[in-house]
Write a structure and sequence with these properties.
Elements lengths: L2 E4 L3 E5 L5 E5 L14 E7 L5 E6 L3 E6 L4 E6 L14 E8 L5 E7 L2 E6 L3 E6 L14 E9 L3
Antiparallel strand pairs: 1-2, 2-3, 3-4, 5-6, 6-7, 7-8, 9-10, 10-11, 11-12
Protein backbone atom coordinates (compact mmCIF):
# COMPACT_ATOMS: atom_id res chain seq x y z
CA UNK A 1 0.00 0.00 0.00
CA UNK A 2 1.25 3.49 -0.78
CA UNK A 3 -1.33 5.57 1.13
CA UNK A 4 -3.91 5.02 3.84
CA UNK A 5 -6.55 7.36 5.28
CA UNK A 6 -9.01 6.85 8.12
CA UNK A 7 -12.42 8.27 8.99
CA UNK A 8 -14.39 7.76 12.19
CA UNK A 9 -15.07 4.04 11.65
CA UNK A 10 -13.66 3.24 8.22
CA UNK A 11 -10.38 3.30 6.33
CA UNK A 12 -9.25 3.36 2.70
CA UNK A 13 -5.88 2.30 1.32
CA UNK A 14 -4.36 2.98 -2.08
CA UNK A 15 -1.74 0.91 -3.89
CA UNK A 16 1.01 2.26 -6.13
CA UNK A 17 -0.92 0.74 -9.08
CA UNK A 18 -3.98 2.86 -8.29
CA UNK A 19 -6.09 0.16 -6.68
CA UNK A 20 -8.27 1.23 -3.75
CA UNK A 21 -9.35 -0.92 -0.80
CA UNK A 22 -11.83 -0.03 1.94
CA UNK A 23 -12.91 -1.59 5.23
CA UNK A 24 -14.78 -0.85 8.45
CA UNK A 25 -18.23 0.60 9.03
CA UNK A 26 -20.42 0.98 5.97
CA UNK A 27 -23.54 2.47 7.59
CA UNK A 28 -23.72 5.21 4.97
CA UNK A 29 -22.07 3.38 2.08
CA UNK A 30 -18.75 5.10 2.74
CA UNK A 31 -16.85 1.99 1.63
CA UNK A 32 -18.19 2.36 -1.91
CA UNK A 33 -18.99 -1.35 -2.20
CA UNK A 34 -22.52 -0.80 -3.49
CA UNK A 35 -24.16 -1.94 -0.27
CA UNK A 36 -24.38 -0.99 3.41
CA UNK A 37 -22.64 -4.07 4.84
CA UNK A 38 -19.64 -3.51 7.14
CA UNK A 39 -16.35 -5.04 5.95
CA UNK A 40 -13.97 -6.60 8.46
CA UNK A 41 -11.27 -7.08 5.83
CA UNK A 42 -10.12 -4.80 2.97
CA UNK A 43 -12.48 -4.84 -0.04
CA UNK A 44 -11.37 -3.77 -3.52
CA UNK A 45 -13.41 -0.78 -4.68
CA UNK A 46 -13.58 1.34 -7.84
CA UNK A 47 -11.96 -1.41 -9.91
CA UNK A 48 -12.89 0.32 -13.18
CA UNK A 49 -10.75 3.35 -12.25
CA UNK A 50 -7.09 4.02 -11.55
CA UNK A 51 -7.19 5.99 -8.28
CA UNK A 52 -4.47 8.57 -7.56
CA UNK A 53 -5.74 10.06 -4.27
CA UNK A 54 -8.26 9.29 -1.54
CA UNK A 55 -9.68 11.29 1.34
CA UNK A 56 -12.22 10.46 4.03
CA UNK A 57 -14.48 12.38 6.37
CA UNK A 58 -16.45 10.97 9.27
CA UNK A 59 -18.86 9.03 7.04
CA UNK A 60 -17.91 9.87 3.47
CA UNK A 61 -15.10 9.03 1.06
CA UNK A 62 -13.61 10.85 -1.93
CA UNK A 63 -11.53 9.18 -4.63
CA UNK A 64 -9.66 11.03 -7.38
CA UNK A 65 -9.15 9.01 -10.57
CA UNK A 66 -6.23 9.37 -12.97
CA UNK A 67 -8.59 10.70 -15.66
CA UNK A 68 -9.53 13.61 -13.36
CA UNK A 69 -12.90 12.20 -12.26
CA UNK A 70 -13.73 12.87 -8.62
CA UNK A 71 -15.95 10.23 -7.04
CA UNK A 72 -17.76 10.47 -3.71
CA UNK A 73 -19.77 8.01 -1.63
CA UNK A 74 -21.22 7.69 1.87
CA UNK A 75 -23.41 10.09 3.84
CA UNK A 76 -24.23 13.31 2.04
CA UNK A 77 -24.56 15.08 5.39
CA UNK A 78 -24.76 18.84 4.78
CA UNK A 79 -23.64 18.26 1.19
CA UNK A 80 -20.34 16.51 2.06
CA UNK A 81 -20.32 14.57 -1.23
CA UNK A 82 -20.41 17.71 -3.38
CA UNK A 83 -22.93 16.21 -5.79
CA UNK A 84 -25.11 19.32 -5.84
CA UNK A 85 -28.02 17.56 -4.20
CA UNK A 86 -29.82 18.64 -1.08
CA UNK A 87 -30.72 14.95 -0.67
CA UNK A 88 -28.87 14.16 2.53
CA UNK A 89 -29.21 10.42 1.97
CA UNK A 90 -26.75 7.58 1.86
CA UNK A 91 -24.89 6.71 -1.34
CA UNK A 92 -23.23 3.27 -1.49
CA UNK A 93 -22.20 3.64 -5.12
CA UNK A 94 -19.80 6.29 -6.40
CA UNK A 95 -21.34 9.65 -7.30
CA UNK A 96 -19.50 12.00 -9.65
CA UNK A 97 -18.53 15.35 -8.17
CA UNK A 98 -18.89 18.04 -10.80
CA UNK A 99 -16.73 21.12 -11.12
CA UNK A 100 -15.77 23.58 -13.82
CA UNK A 101 -12.11 22.67 -13.21
CA UNK A 102 -10.16 19.41 -12.82
CA UNK A 103 -9.02 18.47 -9.32
CA UNK A 104 -5.43 17.44 -8.61
CA UNK A 105 -5.64 17.03 -4.82
CA UNK A 106 -8.44 16.38 -2.33
CA UNK A 107 -9.01 16.46 1.41
CA UNK A 108 -11.95 15.74 3.71
CA UNK A 109 -12.79 15.90 7.40
CA UNK A 110 -15.98 15.74 9.40
CA UNK A 111 -18.76 16.48 6.91
CA UNK A 112 -16.86 18.80 4.55
CA UNK A 113 -14.50 18.37 1.63
CA UNK A 114 -11.85 20.41 -0.20
CA UNK A 115 -10.39 20.13 -3.68
CA UNK A 116 -7.39 21.81 -5.33
CA UNK A 117 -7.53 22.26 -9.12
CA UNK A 118 -4.93 22.28 -11.88
CA UNK A 119 -5.35 26.07 -12.09
CA UNK A 120 -4.56 26.51 -8.37
CA UNK A 121 -8.14 27.16 -7.25
CA UNK A 122 -9.53 25.81 -3.99
CA UNK A 123 -13.09 24.46 -3.99
CA UNK A 124 -14.98 23.59 -0.80
CA UNK A 125 -18.31 21.94 -0.06
CA UNK A 126 -20.30 20.38 2.79
CA UNK A 127 -20.73 21.52 6.39
CA UNK A 128 -19.72 25.07 7.29
CA UNK A 129 -20.87 25.48 10.89
CA UNK A 130 -17.37 26.61 11.98
CA UNK A 131 -16.44 28.47 8.80
CA UNK A 132 -14.39 25.51 7.55
CA UNK A 133 -15.38 26.21 3.92
CA UNK A 134 -13.67 29.58 3.92
CA UNK A 135 -16.95 31.31 3.14
CA UNK A 136 -18.24 34.44 4.78
CA UNK A 137 -21.48 32.82 5.92
CA UNK A 138 -22.09 29.71 8.00
CA UNK A 139 -24.24 27.91 5.41
CA UNK A 140 -23.53 24.40 4.17
CA UNK A 141 -22.93 23.93 0.43
CA UNK A 142 -24.12 20.87 -1.48
CA UNK A 143 -22.12 21.75 -4.62
CA UNK A 144 -18.46 22.51 -5.20
CA UNK A 145 -17.87 26.25 -4.82
CA UNK A 146 -14.68 28.09 -5.69
CA UNK A 147 -13.28 29.56 -2.48
CA UNK A 148 -9.85 30.91 -3.40
CA UNK A 149 -6.86 30.63 -5.67
CA UNK A 150 -3.58 29.46 -4.18
CA UNK A 151 -1.81 32.52 -5.59
CA UNK A 152 -4.40 34.97 -4.16
Amino acid sequence: MSRVVAGLDHAVALTARGEAYAWGSNRCGQLGTGDFIDALTPQRILSSHTIVDVAVGVEHTLALASDGALLAFGCNTRGALGIGSANLGRHATPQTVTSAETFTAIAAAGAHSVGLTEQGAVYTWGANNQGQLGASRFFARAATTRTARTDD
